[in-house]
Design goal:
alpha+beta; five-stranded parallel sheet; five-stranded antiparallel sheet; about 30% helix; globular
Length: about 325
């Protein structure tokens, strides 16, 4: 399953969080960040190169500079400009927006049902499947068995029996289907009386493996290889609780309590890891599956079944709000 990375450009934190939460609710959508001014927006898009940009063109504070003019700026620096989905308060700038080549135009609030339609059109535009296809079960096929003493028949054509015919046919219908399947088979030599006495009726065996299914594009769990001087250490990404910066290296903390050092910066990991990994501090990236508590007053995240507490900084407060919204959008009960 392919993924689409996106950023949200909006100077209203509540609107930004709502848009990010709705878009992030689709499993193939990967949130890379947000910005509230034209300068920050340009830097963010050039840095992370998202596939889609949600662009607010009527900011709360006009001096923040968020507008359609940003699209022209991206064309100055990027070979491939992201698809732009405009978000705004009303539709007065709709015609002007489409003159800039935007992909779609939403008035607030962005809803899941409307965004789903847009993403389906985007799927067709990109030319690949974003949704995970369901597994297709294998239909049992009847295989005729020829007695061992008889010559192997030559089949000149094969007729496929629809599965529904096998389910609904009566005893008489079953015989008709079997005859249709074998009607092109050459006639076997006549049996002698002696052979007829010892020959049993041909039986039909059905080869069925109830556990067999055709899996289409099943995503494989991410495996991270930490390589050092010919030593290849393989780690399942699901086992990683958090990553901690250590100068020009990164300490990877596993759910077993083990710590592995990789000679890459935390920024490198931020660029290559996708959800559920999200940066909450200049020194920390956390696997959100392991977050058991978020204390916004103390600016710390507590990990599940652990005494570890990770701080988060004000510059990454938007990411914390996104985590809270994503958890609340699942099977969730607040008391």
């Amino acid at each position: 399953m392919k993924t689409i990375s996106f950023v949200v450009l909006d100077d209203d934190p509540q609107r930004m969080q709502k848009t990010a939460a709705v878009a992030g609710g689709f499993p193939f959508m990967v949130f890379l960040g947000s910005a509230g001014s034209a300068e920050e927006a340009l830097d963010l898009v050039l840095d992370v190169r998202p596939d889609v940009v949600f662009l607010e063109i009527e900011p709360e504070e006009p001096e923040n500079g968020l507008s359609l003019a940003l699209i022209s700026e991206w064309y100055r620096y990027l070979v491939q400009v992201p698809q732009v989905i405009v978000t705004t308060k009303n539709d007065t700038l709709c015609l002007q927006a489409f003159k800039y080549g935007v992909f779609d135009y939403f008035t607030h609030p962005v809803t899941t049902s409307e965004l789903r339609k847009t993403l389906l059109r985007l799927e067709k535009t990109m030319g690949y499947t974003l949704r995970q296809p369901a597994a297709v079960p294998v239909t049992p096929v009847a295989t005729p068995v020829v007695p061992s003493h008889a010559a192997a028949p030559t089949v000149s054509k094969t007729e496929i029996v629809p599965p529904i015919a096998l389910e609904e046919a009566t005893t008489e219908g079953d015989e008709a289907i079997e005859n249709e399947t074998l009607e092109a088979t050459e006639v076997l030599p006549e049996e002698t009386p002696e052979e007829a006495e010892t020959t049993e009726e041909p039986s039909v065996t059905v080869a069925v493996n109830p556990t067999t299914a055709v899996e289409v594009n099943t995503p494989q769990p991410l495996v991270i290889c930490v390589k050092s001087y010919g030593d290849y250490r393989y780690i399942d990404a699901d086992e990683i609780c958090y990553l901690q910066a250590d100068n020009n290296s990164t300490d990877i903390h596993l759910n077993t309590g083990e710590m592995i050092t990789a000679f890459k910066t935390l920024k490198h990991f931020e660029g290559v890891l996708q959800a559920p990994f999200i940066r909450i501090h200049n020194s920390y990236i956390v696997n959100t599956k392991y977050i058991g508590r978020i204390h916004t007053g103390n600016s710390v995240c507590h990990l599940k079944n652990s005494t570890v507490k990770l701080p988060f900084s004000k510059s990454y407060k938007d990411n914390i709000d996104l985590i809270i919204n994503q958890i609340a959008s699942g099977n969730y009960l607040e008391i």
